[in-house]
Amino acid sequence: MGAETVLAIGLVTLAAILIAATFALKGWQGWLELRKLEIAHGGHPETASQLTGGRIEIADLKERVRKLEQIASGIEL
After folding, report:
1. How far apart are CA 67 and CA 59, in angstroms?
2. What transmembrane ranges does the database entry give (predicted)?
3. What 3-state class would DSSP assign to 30?
4. For each successive 10 residues of the chain (77 residues), what is the average pLDDT?
């Protein structure tokens, strides 16, 4: 193996490590941002998912009310 080959392998390895470190740092920053949002919404990890679940539940209830109003007015579904 020549010096150029060893140098090329070393540079490719260094580039791969830098890319992996960059993605790991982005993931870490995203996780920290998520934790900040959870703390801002009451400090409970489940709060963000509960907000989404609550919106889905409200939309489901609105759909049920709409169907009941259609039944009450005599419109077939």
Report:
1. 12
2. 6-25
3. helix
4. 93 96 94 88 63 76 88 74
Q: Are 61 and 53 in contact (CB under 8 A)?
A: no
- Give the three-class secondary structure for 45: coil
Per-domain boundaries in the chain: 1-42, 46-77
Give the length of the chain.
Answer: 77
Cβ neighbours for 41, distance < 8 A, ≥ 6 positions apart = 47, 48, 51
Q: How far apart are the first and last CA of the chain?
A: 76
Question: Can you tell me whether residue 44 is helix, strand or coil?
Answer: coil
* Region of 43 on the Ramachandran plot (φ > 0 left; ψ -120 to 50 alpha; else beta): left
Task: Tell me the helices (H) and strands (E) count for the chain, helix number first.
Answer: 2, 0
pTM over 0.85: no
